[in-house]
Design goal:
Length: 487
């Protein structure tokens, strides 16, 4: 394992992660792909569920893989071998069936067994649909314009998209709009009368959804799946030799050939901290963050568990306190009219003065837990960054602040690589970023994370040009360094 920093880290070795990692490595970036399971592939894996029998367990076929990816990542050189799905079979309740293959004449005869009308209409349907597919095909490899942006480039791209659709023949535009906005059943009813043919074609309109073919939006799903291709044939599907697990093995070989490093059995511990794990290459642990970032009311939930209590109970609280004020001299709270009674109650509870025993318990936990957590990662290259927490939107809450101070043991402070200034997050000390007296809401947490990552990245870039005593992931300890109180 190299100690050199990575330019990019991809979390998850599924087919999308492998493709992205391969492109990053192809572009010259030092890339690491992390997969928590013992094999790559994600949902595109093939496993031996019974001795001698291998199953592609979570996916089924290749179709929407872009030809450009096959060419640019040189997949054929690494064993890419898709096999055409040459026939399809649709059984009926009365024992009959519909069997379609690669021969146009035989397909016409098979459809005519069920409906001469449908056999005559099938070529018209195929022709009309193919014109819509050809109109959409170039868009598959183009990023969609941002409808809400005022950026000149985005506006130009949006205008180009509008001009493209305006230039389409009216019948093509009409069919495109129907498929984009309507149901697959309505579209198919205009061409066919037999349920077996309509049911067979409509099956592609419900894959991966919880809707039926008569639901609005199923037309878009049908169009999306027909945009797939095999060997240049629109709407054709294929199976990879060795199952889709064989395909993702090809992707891994391609990524490694371009220089990417792939590690299996390498979980990332906290998805809430991925921004930090991108910095260096190992999983960033937020145990210390969790311990220091919550008030006394949450300290009580920690107890003797191996890890501090989950923060999930605070996720999703995205309302803010704009218009709310607190008079510390009278204890009177004036709430914004928009707040519900439950939100007001949550705010009042956050103002409860912690008892002396609660405060002592908090400090004891910090002194006991933080060294244990830091020592847990002492065998791997780790840097500790100290950063002050925002103090909350009501700075005149008399006597409350001392109960929430973070006291760092000397053993932790000695391992500190650098500290962020205490004023780093003062801009967050506004009601709009909080849902009670101490907890950041969704907007506040996003601003906190963005600022933290920006500050740490800036320090790391500066440090990269100087000799470093270690490298690796960065464990952030949120809380002001209090050397005078530490012991």
């Amino acid at each position: 394992m190299s100690s050199e920093p990575y330019d990019a880290i991809v979390i998850g070795g599924g087919h999308n992660g492998l493709v992205n990692g391969a492109y990053l490595a192809r572009g010259g970036m030092r890339t690491l792909i992390l997969e928590q399971r013992e094999m790559v592939g994600g949902a595109a894996i093939t496993e031996e569920l019974r001795p001698g029998f291998w199953f592609t367990t979570f996916s089924y076929a290749l179709s929407l893989l872009r030809p450009e990816i096959v060419q640019e990542l040189e997949l054929v050189k690494h064993g890419f071998m898709p096999l055409l799905m040459s026939s399809t079979f649709a059984p009926m309740e009365n024992g009959d069936y519909l069997l379609l293959g690669q021969d146009h004449g035989e397909n016409q005869q098979e459809i005519a067994r069920h409906s001469r009308h449908d056999a005559d209409a099938y070529d018209r349907f195929d022709h009309d649909l193919n014109k819509v597919l050809q109109a959409f095909k170039p868009l598959m490899d183009a990023p969609p314009p941002n409808l809400f942006s005022d950026d000149p480039e985005e506006l130009l791209a949006l205008a180009g998209l509008g001009a493209r659709f305006k230039a389409l023949p009216k019948d093509v535009l009409h069919n495109a709009v129907r498929l984009l906005t309507g149901s697959a059943a309505d579209f198919l009813d205009d061409y066919f009368e037999s349920d077996i043919l309509k049911g067979y074609l409509a099956s592609s309109s419900i894959i991966g959804t919880r809707i039926g073919p008569r639901s609005q939006g199923s037309g878009l799903v049908l169009l999306y799946h027909l945009l797939g291709e095999h060997d240049g044939i629109m709407g054709a599907w294929s199976f990879h030799k060795g199952g889709n697990g064989g395909f993702t093995k090809v992707l891994r070989r391609a990524a490694e050939a371009f220089g990417a490093e792939v590690r299996v059995e390498s979980p990332v511990f906290s998805r809430s901290s991925l921004m930090m794990s991108i910095l260096r290459g190992s999983a960033y642990q937020d145990d210390v963050v969790d311990l220091l970032a919550h008030p006394i009311a949450r300290i009580k939930n920690v107890r003797q568990a191996d890890k501090p209590h989950s923060r999930s109970e605070y996720k999703g609280r995205d309302y803010d306190l704009v218009g709310t004020s607190y008079d510390a001299s009278t204890g009177q709270v004036t709430f914004a009219p928009k707040l519900t009674e439950a939100q007001r109650l949550g705010f009042r509870k956050s103002l409860i003065q912690p008892s002396q025993s609660d405060t002592e318990y908090s400090l004891k936990l910090q002194r006991d837990w933080i060294p244990r957590i830091v020592d847990r990662y002492s065998d791997s290259p780790t840097e500790i960054v100290l950063t002050a927490l925002p103090r909350g939107p009501f700075l005149k809450l008399g006597g409350l602040s001392k109960g929430y101070d973070s006291v760092l043991p000397t053993s932790v402070i000695k391992k500190t690589s650098f500290s962020l200034p205490g004023h780093t997050f003062e801009f967050l000390e506004k009601p709009e970023y909080y849902f009670d007296a101490f907890h950041l809401n969704a907007k506040g947490r996003q601003k906190f994370t963005e600022t933290l990552v920006s500050e740490v990245l800036g320090r790391l870039r500066s440090a990269d040009s100087k000799p470093q005593r270690n490298s690796g992931s960065h464990l952030a300890v949120h809380g002001p360094p209090r050397i005078d109180d530490a012991n």
